């Protein structure tokens, strides 16, 4: 059904202006939700149907719903930004729609039509426009997801699905958006294996990363850096963010995409912007021993993580079982800062966008 469109049913009892203002004064990340959600259903008989923008509410689930047992679940994350003229814009939503389709295919789920995916995001942003923060670091974080809700305890791809998008008013992801993070080098746990689901945006990848995240927290680290599962040698990503390294000759390096690395839209945008700015970007395997050596010798001047939620986050220190190493002088470096402002300027419509990435909603 390529012509699936979302019907609008306004929330009859939205939050009052005062309640909303109080919630949005200091929203944090992922705690303050809007008045509406987008929802659509799939069944084998009817295909995708019943697409609505409606009041945000709990969803009844049968205790035998497949997602609760075998974790057929995928999600996306994108932001709507407030623009200077009081409007709002999305950044590359068709890339999220496309990745949502690939994730569905990997998890043997029925893909959601890409046009309808974008229709849901636009209509939700429009109806919940009062929830888009106008602070410099604020945005409306959109969380599309899909679950298998067939009532059946058999191991097979489900025949019924629910697509939902919820929206959350957010500030910056890390408490100090100008600070650096210390990352824990996970030498025991891995995130994704060859042939596995690492390139699909599924909740299961996050569930399996939480023990490593807890280990990191116990070592005083904010994030985990994962190595490849086959050799425990090559740096892959941070489990929720892709990673870049900057060298003294001005070149950038990021690990090449594979079936164990999530193809980040921020990663792709940074590669494009950096190359257009005349920088050399290599997509190459990068061994952990090489990382240590490049930092010790001073050949590497910066490292940073990137993703929609936190944009660009400089890595100040790497902590492993045996040693610690600090990159640069543990403050955001000039390359990370420059790329961040190039990206943010496009996302917020402060500069011309020659790529068609900036898409006005209203
Ligand atoms: C979402 C995600 C990223 C970042 O992707 P963006 O499209 O840049 O937000 C990186 N790694 C993992 C594991 C992710 O789930």
Automatic annotation (TrEMBL):
Sorted alphabetically, the keyword list is:
Amino-acid biosynthesis, Aminotransferase, Branched-chain amino acid biosynthesis, Pyridoxal phosphate, Transferase
Q: Name one GO molecular function term.
A: branched-chain-amino-acid transaminase activity
- CDD domains, alphabetically? BCAT_beta_family
Q: What Pfam families has UniProt attached to this entry?
A: Aminotran_4
Cofactor(s) needed for function = pyridoxal 5'-phosphate
Record InterPro entries: Aminotrans_IV, Aminotrans_IV_CS, Aminotransferase-like, B_amino_transII, BCAT-like_C, BCAT-like_N, BCAT_family
Q: Which reaction does it catalyse?
A: L-isoleucine + 2-oxoglutarate = (S)-3-methyl-2-oxopentanoate + L-glutamate; L-leucine + 2-oxoglutarate = 4-methyl-2-oxopentanoate + L-glutamate; L-valine + 2-oxoglutarate = 3-methyl-2-oxobutanoate + L-glutamate
Q: Does the keyword field hold Transferase?
A: yes
Entry's EC annotation: 2.6.1.42
Which pathway does UniProt place it in?
Answer: Amino-acid biosynthesis; L-leucine biosynthesis; L-leucine from 3-methyl-2-oxobutanoate: step 4/4; Amino-acid biosynthesis; L-isoleucine biosynthesis; L-isoleucine from 2-oxobutanoate: step 4/4; Amino-acid biosynthesis; L-valine biosynthesis; L-valine from pyruvate: step 4/4
Give the protein family. Belongs to the class-IV pyridoxal-phosphate-dependent aminotransferase family.
Q: What does this protein do?
A: Acts on leucine, isoleucine and valine.
What protein name does the entry list? Branched-chain-amino-acid aminotransferase
Q: Which organism is it from?
A: Methylobacterium komagatae
């Amino acid at each position: 059904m390529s012509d699936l469109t979302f019907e609008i049913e306004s929330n009859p009892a939205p939050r009052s202006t005062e309640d909303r203002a109080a919630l949005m004064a200091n929203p944090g990340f992922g705690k303050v939700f809007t008045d509406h959600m987008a929802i659509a259903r799939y069944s084998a008989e009817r295909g995708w149907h019943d697409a609505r923008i409606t009041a945000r509410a709990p969803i009844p689930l049968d205790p035998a719903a497949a997602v609760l047992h075998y974790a057929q679940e995928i999600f996306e994350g994108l932001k709507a930004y407030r623009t200077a003229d009081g409007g709002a814009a999305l950044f590359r939503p068709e890339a999220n729609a496309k990745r949502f389709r690939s994730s569905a295919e990997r998890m043997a789920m029925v893909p959601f039509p890409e046009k309808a995916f974008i229709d849901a995001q636009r209509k939700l942003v429009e109806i919940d426009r009062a929830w888009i923060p106008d602070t410099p670091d604020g945005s409306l974080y959109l969380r599309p997801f899909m679950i298998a809700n067939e009532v059946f305890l058999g191991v097979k791809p489900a025949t019924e699905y629910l697509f939902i998008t919820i929206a959350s008013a957010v500030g910056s992801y890390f408490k100090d958006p100008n600070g650096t993070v210390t990352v824990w080098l996970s030498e025991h746990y891995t995130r994704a294996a060859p042939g596995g689901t690492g390139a699909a945006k599924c909740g299961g990848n996050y569930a399996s990363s939480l023990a490593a995240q807890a280990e990191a927290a116990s070592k005083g680290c904010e994030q985990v850096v994962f190595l490849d599962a086959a050799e425990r040698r090559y740096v892959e990503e941070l489990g929720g963010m892709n990673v870049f390294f900057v060298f003294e000759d001005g070149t950038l390096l990021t690990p090449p995409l594979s079936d164990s690395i999530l193809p980040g839209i921020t990663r792709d945008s940074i590669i494009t912007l950096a190359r257009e700015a005349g920088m050399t970007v290599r997509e190459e395997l990068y061994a952990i021993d090489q990382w240590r050596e490049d930092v010790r010798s001073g050949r590497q001047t910066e490292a940073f993580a990137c993703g929609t939620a936190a944009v660009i986050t400089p890595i100040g220190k790497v902590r492993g079982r045996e040693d610690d190493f600090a990159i640069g002088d543990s403050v955001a470096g000039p390359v990370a800062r420059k790329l961040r402002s190039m990206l943010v300027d496009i996302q917020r419509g402060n500069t011309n966008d020659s790529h068609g990435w900036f898409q006005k909603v209203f």
